[in-house]
Amino acid sequence: MDVISLQSRVITGYVGNAIAVPTLERTGATAHPVDTVTYDHHPGHGPVTPDVTPLSEISSRLHQASGECGDTFAFLSGYLANADQGRAALDFIARSRTGERHVTWYLDPVFGDDPEGIYVDPTIVDFFRDEAVPACDAVLPNRFELAELTGTTIEDTASAVSAARKLMARGPGLVFVSSIPGPDGSISNLLVTESETEVIAVPKRWLRAKGTGDMLSAAFTGLHAAGCNPRTAAQSAVEAVAAAVADASIRDAVELDPINALNSLNILMRTPAASTYTESLE
């Protein structure tokens, strides 16, 4: 399966396309990265000077990547440098869906989290809420982003389910949300589709490294686009990230080591792991 990945790029570390590409490839996908901006490293690790990709190049690279894909492909979008890049993606999706081509859009609305709040221009948040959500097929937010997109308070899985259903009423057929406070110090990941609701919990660990959300969305996208059912794709994606988090936490590492984590897990032929547990809410 071909997957075009529109995200940020770092020279050092594993966030954005730097982690999405190897993760997608580990699922068996052919990744076609298009970078929205390049940083020396994740901004959370210190000051950076962004090298923003011009809008004309975004459109050109998306068109070029599309030409390398078959009639059916997936589109994963993450961090945007500005809202106009998002509108270029929206136009690209609309054009790609003409004729006999089939494109599935996985939207990771990267704009904030609990420790930092909103860390992008507010117009990007407006774009995600008003333009991208109604046009995409699946939304992959964290708890903070889901709350902002729906104007709700999310404190547990029950309130997250309600918010996810509210988001789905605007168009997407699937919501996969991460970082929900769980019982006994765990962190829950929630999958909501029209027919099922699944909670996948992992132990909460001390972590300095960034990029877990980007890794999670890429793993889910690659597996689901390849034909895995949503529950299997979500469980396998969570296990891959949990392995990377456990490794980085033990080492107190500033960066993830996704290659070893992905090699240690056969995320296409999933076997139960002790680090996660699931609970069906329906």
Description:
The chain is an alpha/beta fold. The chain has a single domain (2-280), classed as UDP-N-acetylmuramoyl-L-alanine:D-glutamate ligase. Helices cover 40% and strands 23% of the residues. It has helices at residues 17-26, 55-67, 83-96, 122-135, 143-150, 157-168, 212-225, 230-251, 258-264, and strands at residues 2-10, 30-39, 51-52, 72-77, 102-107, 112-113, 117-118, 138-139, 174-181, 186-193, 197-203, 277-280. The strands form 2 sheets. A 10-stranded mixed β-sheet has the order 3-2-1-4-5-8-9-10-11-12, with helices on both faces. Strands 6-7 form a two-stranded antiparallel sheet.
Distance between the termini: 31 Å
How many strands, what sense, and barrel or not for the largest sheet? 10 strands, mixed
Share of helical residues: 40-55%
Mean pLDDT: 89
Gyration radius (Cα, Å) is 17 Å
The name of the CATH topology is UDP-N-acetylmuramoyl-L-alanine:D-glutamate ligase
| Number of structural domains | 1
Identify the CATH architecture: 3-Layer(aba) Sandwich
User: What structural category do the secondary elements indicate?
Assistant: alpha/beta
Output the CATH homologous superfamily: Ribokinase
Instruction: For the largest sheet, list the strands in their spatial order.
Output: 3-2-1-4-5-8-9-10-11-12
Q: Name the quaternary structure.
A: single chain
